[in-house]
Amino acid sequence: MFEELPDLDSKLIDKPGIPADLWSAPRTLWGSSKYHIQAYKVEFVINGLKEEVIRTLDYLKMGQVEVPIEKQVTISVWKSPYPQFNNIPLSGNVYSVGFENDPPYVIYFGYFYAARFNLKTRQIDLFMADAQPKVLTGEVENFLRVSTSLFFISENVFPFHSSAVSLEGETFVFFGPHNAGKSTLAQLAPESSLVLGDDLNALILKEDGVYIASLPFPSEVMRIRPIAERRISALFRIVKDKTNYFEPMSPGEKIGALYASMPVYNVLPSDMRQESSSLFEISVRVPLCRLHFSKDEEVYPWLLKNLDSIPR
Question: CA 131 to CA 78: how far, in whole Å?
Fold first, then answer.
């Protein structure tokens, strides 16, 4: 991993972290270009990126827009007076998260960026240091992953590690730990289906049901994904197995499984996140159980045939 990031120089810092005076440092825009990206109903406008970095972000583009923009959030990128905030030899982390209580800030930083999110005002401070564009591409993506997650949480929209497939009027959401089979199930989906994503999606609690929406982050499924949302027919905590079958889950298991698959949200202190009542509502409004599945294309005909037997 270290060799893939040639700009990381362990001599630049003694330990990972953000200098205390960073937030009061003089503010000069890091670059001169703007980058627009839509995440669900929000358009994020990043002002002050460098054009050579923007050119490397084409892989975040999505297809047809089915969800209209309702809000626009502008984030300015300030030039960092410090050359680096983290490195692999010292921490091994792609990004780190910390907290301040007065006012309530979430602090997060990667190798060459440092940011803080005010949970009351939802304003974001962002400082970026210089590095090779191919390195900063991942930095911008990780910044956006955390920032969109934090922005959505107060609106009953939750970041959700999952794959989501819609076919024949039904939408199935598969989730579980790393290597559980989320991408496998997305890749097995019929050509006629809609794959919303197989990494990070948005789980949305509404009055009329629970929905899943695509987000602009990389997918292993090489299809053009629209900016879209679908009402969920069933949520499955997936387990690779030799045969397909459902396994019921207790109410506590359901909430725990949902919580474990919500990055950023699940590391927030209890006083900074919504009560678990939202997760309880999700767990009772839509069927949720373990799905033991065999890795073949017959899993989708089997699911459609056995819809009425999904445990609640």
Answer: 14
Give all strands (DSSP E) within the chain, no chain letters.
33-39, 42-49, 71-79, 96-101, 104-109, 113-118, 124-128, 157-161, 163-167, 170-175, 194-197, 200-206, 209-213, 229-231, 234-240, 245-247, 288-293
Nearest to 71 by CA among 46, 44, 48: 44
Write down the architecture of domain 158-309 according to CATH. Answer: Alpha-Beta Complex (3.90)
Query: CA 255 to CA 102: how far, in whole Å?
Result: 30
The pLDDT score that the predictor gives to residue 9 is 46
For residue 94, what are its two tokens? 């792609």
The answer to whether 150 touches 116, Cβ cutoff 8 Å, is no
Q: Tell me the domain boundaries of the chain.
A: 2-155, 158-309
- Cis amide leading into 68 (omega within 30): no
Using left for φ > 0, alpha for ψ between -120 and 50, and beta otherwise, residue 40 falls in left
Cα–Cα dist 118/95, whole Å: 18
pLDDT in tens, 64-97: 999 999 999 999 999 999 998 887 554 445 778 8
What type of residue is 224?
I
Q: Determine the Cα–Cα distance for residues 129 and 133; give it in Å rounded to an integer.
A: 11
Residue 38 scores a pLDDT above 90: yes
* 3-state secondary structure at position 170: strand
Tell me which residue of 13, 26, 202, 237 sits closest to 109, measured CA to CA. 13
Contacts 24+ apart (CB under 8 A), 31-38: 31/77, 35/140, 37/144, 37/216, 38/62, 38/65, 38/67, 38/69, 38/216, 38/227
| pTM metric for this prediction | 0.89
